[in-house]
Design a protein that fits this description.
The complex is a heterodimer of chains A (about 180) and B (about 350).
Chain A: E1 2-6, E2 9-13, E3 18-21, H1 26-30, E4 44-47, E5 53-61, H2 69-72, H3 75-96, H4 99-110, E6 113-121, H5 135-145, E7 154-156, E8 166-169
Parallel strand pairs in A: 5-6, 6-7
Antiparallel strand pairs in A: 1-2, 2-8, 3-4, 4-5
Chain B: E1 2-10, E2 13-19, E3 23-28, H1 34-47, H2 62-77, E4 94-101, E5 108-113, E6 121-124, E7 134-137, H3 149-155, H4 162-171, H5 182-195, E8 198-202, E9 205-210, E10 213-216, H6 222-235, E11 244-248, H7 256-259, H8 262-271, E12 275-280, H9 283-296, E13 302-310, E14 313-319, H10 329-345
Parallel strand pairs in B: 3-12, 3-13, 7-11, 11-12
Antiparallel strand pairs in B: 1-2, 1-4, 4-5, 5-6, 8-9, 9-10, 13-14
Helix pairs in contact in B: 1-2, 5-6, 5-8
Classes of the chains: A alpha/beta (about 180), B alpha/beta (about 350).
Chain lengths: ~180, ~350
């Protein structure tokens, strides 16, 4: 098993998968972020051992603080743009990336399907000052935005089962419970 | 069943081609032409099923259809005259409509100029009349205005379009005596359970028969009356195989609990051979249709038609799933409202 922490959520993938934190890869950070002025990236790119699917995963944790829409805009647009930019980045990474990066990019494009996933962690219940995002509407709009890439994008959380990886709520040391 | 329609220079449409299925769902902003499509198709089908109209020939003739199409379009859409339905521009303009059916012998095409007042020009007349009536349900119910409405409509200028009269004629048929077919029963049972009773026509007035006795239809909620209206058309079998149902904003006046009943009813009618057309603004209904389709896998063909403002008139994006039909205004507004709500709530 390989584990990656994002916010207060730990993502656990089978050891046979290729998984990278895309937005920490050196080619992305040092070369690609300035393409066309600014290129974004999703949090994880994960490819299963049989190359059945490549998963572009963006993780958002709003358990402590709600999203600031005024500053960040619609979340579905952010995920769609990051997905598009990540695919462009992976293409360049396949040619110019270092060993691990090129291997991941190559595996991505050899996969039979591309999957877009927004991992959206929110409080269990809304409360005054912290209302919840409407996951169904976000998924439906995301479907229209990334249809050419994945006709069935998913908005998931730690409560979601039936994903090929597991997620566990694991507060970082010092984080609010 | 109508297979496809080509519309040129008609009201808000410059040129659109509609590929149709057994169940057709039209969405788009106000003014995008949803009701125009429903009323255009209804008017043509109604002119092609002239059983109720005096003076129709045994078989379709060009001359009769040219007058009846103009009359029906004018009575249903209520322009000053049929020529005003051609897309507005400076100078002369010509609208053209071509409809293709499963039975090619029913194909029809016609057109008219802005100067036409009481006739259209039929270029392809159908070889046969249609077998079953189309039904047009407006956004509001008609059960409460039913008593005496048809004769009042014929004798008074009521400033209402002819779909109301046509609907009252269809409502004016009693249930057949004896047991209904299994298919009709399956459609009716969930609706009558939600209504808390079944509709009865006593002389010229509708009543809801409940366990507590009969209630005048005017005394029940408007949403219940609306659902009872379509239940009656199912029960009296005026919605028949090879017929068509046009329902403008079925969700209006229905609470969400009643809206949830619509997909089974709409798909059920389509499976019985009624070609169904609805126009909707409701994200709730669109999602209920999606959920029903995913869970029940109905065998009928569906067409989702999204009407969008284009550079030159309204354009249509369409396909067998909602995702094929482009942006959904109701979804965008839902998300936008959610964000405004969150901004206020999270201050």
């Amino acid at each position: 098993m390989t584990a990656h922490q994002e916010g207060d959520v730990e993502f656990r993938f089978d050891a046979s998968w290729l998984v990278e934190r895309y937005d920490t890869l050196s080619y992305y950070r040092n070369q690609f972020t300035n393409v066309c002025g600014s290129a974004k990236g999703v949090d994880f790119v994960a490819v299963d051992a049989r190359r059945e699917g490549a998963w572009l995963i963006e993780a958002k944790d709003y358990t402590q603080e709600p999203r600031d829409h005024g500053k960040k805009g619609p979340i579905e647009n952010e995920v769609a743009e990051k997905t598009r930019d990540t695919l462009a980045g992976l293409m360049a990474m396949k040619v110019y990336g270092n060993g691990n990066e090129a291997t991941l990019a190559d595996a991505t494009f050899k996969s039979k399907r591309l999957h877009v996933v927004l991992h959206l962690e929110q409080p269990t219940h809304a409360k005054r000052g912290h209302a919840l995002l409407d996951a169904a509407s976000i998924q439906q709009k995301l479907k229209l935005l990334v249809r050419a890439i994945d006709p069935h994008p998913q908005v998931v959380s730690t409560a979601t089962t039936k994903l090929p990886w597991t997620t566990v709520w694991k507060p970082r040391p010092g984080a609010n419970p | 069943m109508i297979k496809s329609v080509t519309i040129d220079k008609f009201t808000v449409f410059e040129h659109v081609e509609l590929q149709l299925g057994a169940l057709n769902v039209i969405h788009g902003e106000n003014g995008a032409g949803k009701t125009h499509i429903l009323k255009l198709l209804y008017s043509v089908l109604s002119a092609m099923k002239p059983g109720r109209t005096q003076g129709a020939p045994e078989q379709p003739t060009k001359d009769w259809l040219e007058r009846e199409l103009a009359r029906k379009l004018t009575a249903v859409m209520r322009p000053d005259n049929v020529g005003r339905l051609a897309r507005r521009k400076v100078g002369l303009n010509r609208a053209d409509i071509a409809m293709r059916f499963d039975d090619a012998g029913q194909d029809i095409s016609f057109g008219f100029n802005t100067t036409n007042k009481s006739k259209v020009e039929v270029s392809t007349p159908p070889k046969r009349w249609l077998e079953s009536d189309p039904a047009y349900l407006p956004t509001r119910e008609a059960l409460s205005i039913f008593p005496g409405f048809t004769s009042l409509y014929e004798t008074t200028d009521l400033n209402l379009d002819e779909t109301w009269r046509d609907l009252c004629l269809l409502l004016d048929t009693r249930r057949r005596k004896g047991a209904v077919s299994k298919a009709v029963k399956a459609l009716l049972e969930p609706i009558e359970a939600a209504l808390g009773g079944r509709l009865q026509l006593d002389e010229k007035r509708f009543y809801l028969e409940t366990d507590l006795g009969s209630i005048e239809i005017d005394l029940v909620a408007e949403g219940v009356r609306k659902l009872a209206m379509i239940a009656w058309l199912v029960a009296n079998e005026r919605l028949q195989s090879k017929g068509a149902l046009f329902w403008d904003e079925p969700e209006v006046n229905l609470n969400p609990r009643l809206v949830k009943l619509l997909p089974a009813l709409l798909f059920g009618l389509a499976e019985r051979g009624v070609q169904v057309f609805i126009a909707t603004h409701s994200l709730f209904l669109l999602r209920e249709l999606y959920i029903y389709q995913e869970l029940n896998k109905p065998t009928v063909t569906t067409s989702y038609l999204g009407l969008h403002a284009g550079a030159d008139g309204v354009e249509v994006r369409q396909g067998p799933t909602l995702d094929d039909s482009g942006d959904i205004v109701a979804l965008d507004e839902n998300l936008e409202q959610s964000r405004r709500y969150l901004d206020v709530e999270n201050q």
